[in-house]
Amino acid sequence: MAIMRIGKAEIRVMDLEESVKYYTNVIGLEEVGRSEGRVYLKAWDEFDHHSLILQEADSPGLDHIAFKVEHEDDLAKYEKKIEQFGCTLKRISKGTRLAEGEAISFELPTGHQVELYHEIVRVGTKTGNLNPAPWPDGMRGIAPHRLDHLALTGEDINTVTRFFTEALDMFISEKIMTVDGEEMVGSFIFARNGKAHDVAFIKGPDKKMHHVAFYVDNWYEVLKAADILSKNNVQFDVTPTRHGITRGQTTYFFDPSGNRNEAFASGYITYPDFPTITWTEDKIGQGIFYHRRELTESFIKALT
Amino acid sequence: MAIMRIGKAEIRVMDLEESVKYYTNVIGLEEVGRSEGRVYLKAWDEFDHHSLILQEADSPGLDHIAFKVEHEDDLAKYEKKIEQFGCTLKRISKGTRLAEGEAISFELPTGHQVELYHEIVRVGTKTGNLNPAPWPDGMRGIAPHRLDHLALTGEDINTVTRFFTEALDMFISEKIMTVDGEEMVGSFIFARNGKAHDVAFIKGPDKKMHHVAFYVDNWYEVLKAADILSKNNVQFDVTPTRHGITRGQTTYFFDPSGNRNEAFASGYITYPDFPTITWTEDKIGQGIFYHRRELTESFIKALT
Amino acid sequence: MAIMRIGKAEIRVMDLEESVKYYTNVIGLEEVGRSEGRVYLKAWDEFDHHSLILQEADSPGLDHIAFKVEHEDDLAKYEKKIEQFGCTLKRISKGTRLAEGEAISFELPTGHQVELYHEIVRVGTKTGNLNPAPWPDGMRGIAPHRLDHLALTGEDINTVTRFFTEALDMFISEKIMTVDGEEMVGSFIFARNGKAHDVAFIKGPDKKMHHVAFYVDNWYEVLKAADILSKNNVQFDVTPTRHGITRGQTTYFFDPSGNRNEAFASGYITYPDFPTITWTEDKIGQGIFYHRRELTESFIKALT
Amino acid sequence: MAIMRIGKAEIRVMDLEESVKYYTNVIGLEEVGRSEGRVYLKAWDEFDHHSLILQEADSPGLDHIAFKVEHEDDLAKYEKKIEQFGCTLKRISKGTRLAEGEAISFELPTGHQVELYHEIVRVGTKTGNLNPAPWPDGMRGIAPHRLDHLALTGEDINTVTRFFTEALDMFISEKIMTVDGEEMVGSFIFARNGKAHDVAFIKGPDKKMHHVAFYVDNWYEVLKAADILSKNNVQFDVTPTRHGITRGQTTYFFDPSGNRNEAFASGYITYPDFPTITWTEDKIGQGIFYHRRELTESFIKALT
User: What interactions and quaternary structure are annotated (chains A, B, C, D) (predicted)?
Assistant: First the structure.
C-alpha cells in the first residue's frame, strides 16, 4: 500500500560502549541484540525488533534511515518509482542485519542512504497486548515512546522533497521558503500516520545529519528529559521550548559522539490533505524556536 | 487511496438554539453556517468547512457519520467493496448539504448511517498556514482541536468490525473479547492516520450512539475541560480519568439533549501493522476506566 | 514563635508488614527506623527523621497527630494556652519514641490525641542541601514530597476550630456552613506556612479519621499516582478530580487496613490575613468534588 | 506577629500607557486605580487592593518594595529592630498612596527603599470567597496568581541578608557562596509563608533591580506564558527552564521599559526550620539555569 513510518536509523558513534550506556541509561532505550559490531536498540513502546542501530566508526553521523512499508510487495512498487525518479538502487537480502528481512537501498538526491523494508521480527511493546497497563514498570532515563524522526541537511531541498512526494508518496506538513518565494530551504515530510514529520530536510551540506528525535508524551516529559540530561551532564544544544514548526515541544542535546538528539512532544495531527504550512525565511527563528525567535550558531553549524 | 479519517458527524438535538449555545460556548466550536434547519460547526484546528452538524429533532442520537477519503475516485472504489460486502448504498449529490460535494451513503450492519466523501469546502484552521502561531487568540470553552471519534453500539460487533476492515480497509487497535474468547464485544477502529480510533463499537442495541469525542491536547486540558463543564453546570457522566483502552485521558458528559460527549486526550500512535490489543471482558472495567476498574450503570445504559 | 506545620501522624494498621510494603513501595515513603512494634517512615523531600508512624493494632485509625513548633519554648507557651482553653495535657519525655525529643500531649474537643513538639532528629532530604538536584534518583511509587494534612471527624466542629485558632494560633482557610448559617460543619485549618490546610475537620463521629494526605507536585503527578495505584490493585475511593475547597487536585484510596489516603496537589497559598472562604452546605458536593458535584456514600461513611 | 509576605512593589516605567497595556494585556493584571501619575495593579488571585504600582519616570528600575506585617503593632516592633540594626527610618502616613494605611520606610544596606505596612484596602480575589470557582472567567494574558518575589542586586550580600534575618525575622532558603566559602554572593529570603523566596539578593551594584516575578501554577502555565510573550513580541531573556535554586520553573523577559519580569512556578515549601541550601559559585550556572548550566551575559548585566 504505502510507507507507514520511519522505522529505523543507523548512526555512527565513536565509542560504542559509552554510546550504549548513554542510549540505554540516559535515553532509556533497550538493547535488543548485538551482531558484527553493531548494537540494536528499541524504545519500550515500539513493537518491532529495533529502531536504532549504533555502529562504531571514526566519525559520528548517519549511516542510513529506513522506512517501513505496509506490504512486502510495496518494495517492488517503490523500486519502480524510485528508479523512475532516477535513483539507482539495490536489494539487500534478508539477514544482512539482525532480525531484518529483505530491503531496498538507494541514495537520496542529498546523498543520504535510505532503505525501505517490510519484514522485521516483531517483539511487541513492553506493556504487551493483553489487558495492558498504560506504561511499563521499571522505565529508565528519558524513556521515549519511539524513534520519531530525523532531520538531515542537503544542498537541494526542492529536489529531495519532490523525491519524497513523487517517488515515495509522502506528504509535506511544512516548508520554509526564502522571502522571495523562490527557493525551498526546509521541508517536513510525513507518511500516512498522523505525525508532524517522519523526516525533515534543511538547507546545508549534503549527506549530513542534523538530529535524531525521540518522542515523549508531553511538556512535562520534556522537563523530565531535560532534568535527566542535566543530572547526567549531557551537553544541551537547546533547552526546553516550543517549535513554531509542528507546534511541538522540544529539547536538543548531544550524544557522546556529538550526534544531536531531540526529545520531541506533541505537535498536531496530519493527513494527506493537510494544508502545507509555509514559513518565510525571515520568520525562521520563530519557526524553529517559537520563544527565542532566533537561531543559534550551534543549532545551525553542528552537523554530523 | 484510502479513508483518511472520520471527518464529520451529524447528530440530533432537541432544542437547536440551546444546543448551538452549548457547542459554541462550552465545547467551543465555531458556527460556520446554517441551512435548512441544520447548524454547521467546526473546531478551531480543523481545516475543512465543518465536522459537526446539529439537526433539530424530537429525540437525540446520531443521524450519520462520514469518513473523508483521500481522492475523489476512492468513492467508486469503496462503492464496489461496500456492495461486495452486501450493503446497499446510494449516491448523495453535491450540494445536498452546505459546502459538501458528492458522497456515498450506506447502512452499517448495526443500522447506523455512514457516508464517504472527498469534496468539502476548505476554510483553513484558525491559525492559518503562513508563519502560524501554535494556538489562536480568543479561544472559547473547551476549545478542542477536532472531532476525534464516535462510539456506537450494535448487536453484532464481529460483523460490523469485519465490515470496516474488509470493505473500508480500516484497522483494529483494540478489541474486547468474552472471557471464553468466542465473541467480540467491543472494537476500536482507525484509518491510516495514527489515531487510536476513528470509530468504536460496543455491544448493545443497534443504531444507538454512545458518545461523540473531541480531542484536547493533554491531561491538563482534560482538567480545564472538566472545570469549564462544572462552571457551566453540565452533567458529567465520568469525571477525569485514564482509559486502559487507548491509554488516553478522558472525561464524559452530556449535551443538553442527552447525547454523551467526551473530551479525549493523548493515547498512543497507530499504524497498519499495530498489534491489536485484546481486553478480556473480565477486565473491561479497567479497560474502560483504568482507575475505577468498574463500569458504571449510566455509562452502560445512557445511549441516544 | 508559633506552630510551623503538621509534622507527624501515627496511624494504626492491622498487618504491619503488609502496610510497610504498601507505604514504601506504593506510596513510596522510606523506612527510617523500627522500635517497639512501630515503623517510622518519611517522604524523600522531608528533612526531619519521620512524618508517619505505623503502629500494629486490631483496628485501623489514628493514634495521634503532632504539630512542630518553631522554638523549644513554644511548648511552654502553648501548654498555657491549651490549659486555658480547658484541655488537660501532659508532657511526653524525650526518647519516648525514636528520634523524638520532649513533647506535650493533649486531647482535642473531638477526642483526637494531639502532640506539639520541637525536637526531632534532622536527617535531611534525599537531594541534600549542597548544590542539590531538583529530585532524587531512584524514587519509588507515588513518591510524594511530604505528609500534607489529615482530615478528622467530630461532633462539634465549631469548638474544635475555635481551639485551633484560639489555643494554637492557627487559621481557617475555608469553612462549610449549614445553609441557615448557624452551624459550622467543616473547617480547614493552617499554620503560618502557606498551605491550604494542615488539618481539616468534618462533621461526624468523634475520634475518627477521614484521611491522611500526601503532597504531590501537580495534576500529572496525580495521574501517575492513580496509575500506580491501579497497577497495584489498590482500592480507590475517588479517582482524580479537583477540589472546590482548596482548588487542589486529588485522588483518594485506601491503605491495606482501610485507612483512607489522598494524593493531593496544588491549591492556593495562604497567609494569616487570608480571607476565609465559606461553602454553604448545599454546595458541599461541588466544594469537595468540583466536577462530580455530589458526595459519594463511601466518602462520607468510610472512617477509621 | 511577623512579616507575612512581600505585598507590593513600585517600579519605574518610561511610557506609562504602554506599560499599563503590557501589564494588563500581556501579564494580565487588573488596573485598580490611578492617582498622582501612578497606576495601581493587582493579580486576580490577590485580595489586597494592589500589588504593583507603576510610576512614570525617566529611567526604569525599582522605587520600593513593601512587606505586609500580620498586625498593625508589628510596625512598632520592627521599627525598633530596624533602628537597632542601624537603619534610619520614617513613618509614611495613611493616604500617601491610594488605598494604603500607615507604613514605615527605610533604606536597606544595599540602598533599596523598603516599606512595612499592615493596612491596605481589601478588595477580594476575582473568584470571591463564597462557594468560589477554582479560577475566574475572562482571564487575560499570562494571568499570574500573584506578585511572587523580587530579585535585587547589592555590593554586600552578607549584610543585607543579615538585616533580613536579624531585623525582619525572615529566613534564608538558599545562599550562593564563593568556592572558598568566604563570601556570600547570593541569598534567597522568605517570610513564614511557605514560599521559596519573597526577595532575593545577588552580588552586583547597589540599588539595582534584577527582576520582578509573578507566580503561575505549573510548567504548562510557563509554556502558555512564553507562547503569549512570543505572540506579543515581548523580548525574552531566558526561555522556559528549571531553576536549580528553588527547583521552580521559569521564563524571563523584559517589560517595555527594560525591567526584567519572570513567570515563576512551583518550587518547594519552606518553614522556619528549612535547612538552608548552599550553592557554590562554581555551580551557579546549574543553580540558576538547571539545564543550560551556565549564565548568560544578558542575565548578569541587564539591571534596572
Answer: Homotetramer.
Q: How many residues does chain D have?
A: 304
C-alpha count within 13 angstroms, C-beta hemisphere, residue D287: 21
Q: Beta-carbon neighbour count of residue C86 at 10 Å?
A: 10
Contacts of A304 (CB under 8 A, 6+ apart): A12, A59, A60, A61, A62, A208, A209, A257, A258, A259, A260
Task: State the distance between the two ends of chain B, measured CA to CA, in whole angstroms.
Answer: 33
Q: Give the Cα separation of A235 and A252 in Å (integer).
A: 9
Contacts of D2 in chain C (CB under 8 A): 1, 192
Residues B51/B56/B60/B64 CA torsion (nearest 10 deg): -40
Q: Report how far residue A30's alpha carbon sits from residue A22's, in angstroms, rounded to the nearest whole number.
A: 11
C137 in reach of chain A (CB within 8 A):
yes
Give the C-alpha distances (Å, rounded to integers) separating D31 from D15, D25, D37, D107. Answer: 16, 10, 13, 28
Say how far apart CA D35 and CA D21 lie, in whole Å. Answer: 17
- How far apart CA D12 and CA A19 sit, in angstroms, is 53
Grid-cell match 449535551, residue found: B255
Q: Is C64 a catalytic residue?
A: no
Tell me the pLDDT tens digit for each residue of A90-130. 999 999 999 999 999 999 999 999 999 999 999 999 999 99
Tell me: the pLDDT tens digits for A15-41? Answer: 999 999 999 999 999 999 999 999 999
Asked if C153 and C109 count as a contact pair (C-beta separation under 8 A), the reply is: no
CB contact under 8 A, C1 and D4: no
Distance CA B179, CA B192 (A): 30
| Residue where a domain terminates, one of A117, A132, A157 | A117
Q: Does D245 touch chain A (CB under 8 A)?
A: no
Backbone phi, then psi, for A158, in 5-degree steps? -60, -45
Q: Is residue C197 annotated as part of the catalytic site, yes or no? A: yes
Q: Can you tell me whether residue A40 is helix, strand or coil?
A: strand
Please tell me whether residues A268 and A196 are part of one structural domain: yes
User: Which run of H or of E encompasses C30?
Assistant: strand C30-35
**What's chain A's length in residues?**
304
Among candidates D158, D151, D157, which has minimal Cα distance to D248?
A: D151
φ/ψ of B165, rounded to 5, equals: -80, -40
Residues C157 and C271 in one domain: yes
Write the residue in D122, D269, D277 that is nearest to C193 by C-beta. Answer: D269
Residue B133 lies in a domain: no
- ipTM for the complex? 0.97
DSSP assignment letter at C24: I
Q: Which three cell numbers stand for residue D185?
A: 554572593
Is position C60 within any domain? yes
Note whether D130 contacts C277, CB cutoff 8 Å: yes
Do A22 and A96 contact (CB within 8 A), yes or no?
no
Residues of the domain holding D228: 146-301
Same domain as C293, residue C151: yes
DSSP letter for C22, please.
Answer: I
Q: Phi first, then psi: what are they for A83, rounded to 5°?
A: -65, -40
* Residue B247 touches chain A, beta carbons under 8 Å: yes
Q: Are A118 and A75 in contact (CB under 8 A)?
A: yes
Give the one of B236, B241, B286 whose C-beta lies nearest to C239's C-beta: B241
Query: Which cell numbers in the block locate residue D173?
Result: 532558603
Total count of domains within chain C: 2
Contact between D237 and D289 under an 8 Å Cβ cutoff? The reply is: no
Residue-wise pLDDT for D74-132, tens only, equals: 999 999 999 999 999 999 999 999 999 999 999 999 999 999 999 999 999 999 999 99
CATH number of D96's domain: 3.10.180.10
* C211 belongs to the catalytic site: yes
3-state secondary structure B130-146: ECCCCCCCCCCCCCCCE
Same domain, B151 and B274: yes
Residue D95 sits in the same domain as residue D191: no
